[in-house]
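Q: Please design a sequence for this.
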């Protein structure tokens, strides 16, 4: 097992990884930018190293500084967390070239699944259904027109690299196509350095369902059920639950088996998430994330499995400590992402947290780096906390969530807690029949 791990991230996810390390006796190294010197992950780490200025490119994306920090602290491995360098194949390769362990899959798997067109081709070979669309990147307007006419409007133009809704445009008819392609390509180039886009049939009211998988180096692969991540704004998730209120036990078993078998055929190692759109009883592969997911805590709550610890142990070449038969699903869990944003306009709200009080009681978990007197910087993602609720069933989980949200106090900055209170009173959410358009309709009404 590793003696020391450097955590190449910040905020709540850095704290989450740090706690997993401490629980199994591993020392931790925090890296931080100059504006994050007082962050909680820095305060609680065994060691810390400043790696650059406030901008991400100067710190959390500064590969030479991160490698240097790992070297001078005699770290054994680097955990990339989520975002930043977590799905950067070149970084994973550099880590290995410096005789350090990258806690994640192989660079090749990161590369293959990071290219959405290639990932779809791989999924098709593995027998997984994909959304109808182009076989690869679209190189000309005439090609795009031909594909769109064949699959029928509306269509979705998507960047082959990246995610988070960047480089993604919905096209209702042919008159919008040329402008939408140009906008998507420009956005993709600016965000990912790759302007290539492809086309998919736009499914108007699907659910977003993902399957959590874990695989070791010895051919053992398991799935941990599904998460429903359909409540999104601008393709950004803010509310997730497990199990999905619309997926049956038979569907769960079938989809989980398909995902696990596919991962085994790939020879994949580590944690990963296979994401689907669910529409009219059919599941369509859309992408695979080759890292820890922000929403992993809800899966931990209903299975009792520490996903981060398993990820670390697998990277240390341990076998999975349980089999698929050992995985038992119990109860219901919901996660609310508490962003430091205006709940109506969604504009970021950095600043000083003048007071901070978390909800408590049974079944309430908070993953956050906030504290009274902490100043939320303006340079990074606005995620300030994750509120995770567990109960024996969904109805009671929603009731506990409402109580916890009403107790949560974050003063000095705006947060989207008021939006979450609106969400859980929405009839579609209460019934479980919401889809990826629900939140957009709520916030634009």
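A: Design:
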């Amino acid at each position: 097992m590793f003696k020391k791990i450097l955590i190449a991230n910040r905020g709540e996810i850095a704290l989450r990884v740090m706690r997993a390390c401490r629980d199994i006796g591993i020392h931790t190294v925090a890296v931080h930018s100059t504006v994050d010197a007082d962050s909680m992950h820095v305060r609680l780490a065994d060691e810390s190293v400043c790696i650059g200025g406030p901008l991400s490119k100067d710190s959390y994306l500064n590969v030479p500084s991160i490698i240097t920090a790992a070297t001078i602290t005699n770290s054994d491995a680097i955990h990339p967390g989520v975002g930043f360098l977590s799905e950067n194949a070149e970084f994973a390769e550099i880590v290995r070239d410096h005789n350090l362990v990258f806690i994640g899959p192989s660079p090749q798997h990161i590369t293959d699944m990071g290219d959405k067109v290639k990932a779809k081709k791989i999924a098709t070979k593995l027998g997984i259904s994909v959304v109808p669309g182009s076989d690869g990147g679209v190189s000309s307007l005439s090609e795009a027109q031909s594909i769109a006419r064949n699959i029928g409007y509306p269509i979705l133009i998507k960047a082959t690299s990246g995610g988070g809704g960047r480089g993604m445009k919905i096209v209702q008819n042919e008159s919008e196509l040329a402008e939408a392609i140009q906008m998507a390509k420009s956005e993709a180039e600016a965000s990912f350095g790759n302007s290539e886009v492809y086309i998919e049939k736009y499914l108007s009211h699907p659910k977003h369902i993902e399957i959590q998988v874990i695989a070791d180096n010895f051919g053992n692969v398991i799935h941990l059920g599904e998460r429903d991540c359909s409540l999104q704004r601008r393709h950004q998730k803010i509310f997730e639950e497990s199990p999905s209120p619309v997926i049956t036990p038979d569907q769960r078993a079938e989809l989980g088996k398909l995902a696990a078998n596919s991962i085994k055929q790939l020879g994949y190692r580590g944690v990963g998430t296979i994401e689907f759109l669910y529409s009219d009883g059919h599941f369509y592969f859309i992408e695979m994330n080759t890292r820890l997911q922000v929403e992993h805590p809800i899966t931990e709550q209903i299975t009792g499995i520490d996903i981060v610890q398993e990820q670390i142990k697998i990277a240390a070449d341990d076998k999975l400590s349980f089999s698929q038969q050992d995985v038992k699903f119990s109860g219901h869990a919901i996660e609310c992402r508490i962003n430091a944003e205006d709940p109506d306009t969604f504009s970021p709200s950095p600043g000083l947290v003048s007071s901070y009080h978390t909800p408590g009681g049974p079944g309430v978990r908070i993953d956050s780096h906030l504290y009274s007197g902490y100043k939320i910087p303006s340079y990074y993602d606005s995620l300030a906390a994750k509120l995770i609720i567990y109960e024996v069933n969904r109805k009671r989980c929603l009731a506990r969530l409402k109580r916890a949200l009403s107790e949560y106090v974050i003063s000095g900055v705006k947060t989207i807690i008021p939006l979450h209170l609106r969400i859980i009173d929405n009839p579609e959410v209460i019934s479980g029949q919401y889809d990826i358009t629900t939140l957009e309709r709520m916030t634009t009404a």
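Q: Thanks. Anything notable?
A: Residues 249-266 form the longest helix (18 residues). The CA atoms of residues 304 and 370 lie 25 Å apart.
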